[in-house]
Amino acid sequence: MRVLVVNPVGTEKWDRVDEELFSRYASSETEIKVISLGKGPKSLERRIDEVEAMPLVIKKVMETHGDFDAVIVNCFLDPGVEALRSLLNKPVLGPCESSIALASLLGKKISVITVGGGEAMIEEKIVQKGYGDLLVSVKSIDIGVLDIDTDLPSTVTKLVKKGEEALKEGAEVVVLGCTGLAGLAASVEEKLGIPVVDPAAATLKMAEALVKLRLVHSRRRY
How many independent structural domains does the chain possess? Predict the structure, then answer.
């Protein structure tokens, strides 16, 4: 099985690290290839970033998907995912929908913790995807996407603090709402004592399951 992961940004900064991360989560028979756009926004933190990235994502995937069994668009805003589902006869997944779907199997009160002040955009995405009734809150820590790995212990501390706020609001599951936070879920879960969903792991495992089950998106929807 081959899975194409597209970082919807104009920098290769995360490609190698993300390929190692996804490969760590992958089954032994799964091959991961991570690519970026070559141009476009450095990160997706504003609505205009998503608008700029979406056509570039679609173009890049259409040029490169041929030898792959599934496609992941590696941003929690899921840019271009639904359009690509209508164009390809293979699973196309994004971390937002995949993570929330998985979280809904673990509890019925979900809180999302993101970065960079993107709460409103993420809340809208979750409502659009039909999970609004499960959403307790969307919270943001006060760092940008480009600064997540500058001080990882500090990032984890901030995530835990927001997670504790979510616990007080009744959250049963926390989702890390930025793919730049991938790899930190276990550290946060250890402190909170409730399930914490890693967006990269959730999306990859969904993709692997769909390929193995030979399932693709319904043409009545896409």
Answer: 2
Question: With the C-alpha atoms ordered 147, 200, 124, 192, is the resulting torsion angle positive or negative?
Answer: negative
One-letter identity of residue 191: K
* 53: Cβ contacts below 8 Å, ≥ 6 apart: 8, 9, 37, 40, 41, 44, 75, 79, 80
> Containing domain of residue 185, as a range?
96-198
Same domain, residue pair 144 and 72: no
The answer to whether residue 71 is domain-embedded is yes
Tell me the pLDDT tens digit for each residue of 114-152: 998 789 999 999 999 999 999 999 999 988 777 777 788
Give me the CATH number covering residue 107. 3.40.50.12500
Cα–Cα distances in Å, from 2 out to 21, 61, 85, 188, 192?
Answer: 15, 14, 17, 30, 35
Task: Please tell me whether the overall predicted TM-score, pTM, comes out greater than 0.85 for this model.
Answer: yes
Q: Are 90 and 100 found together in one domain?
A: no
Distance of CA 146 to CAs 1, 9, 150, 155, Å?
A: 31, 12, 8, 12
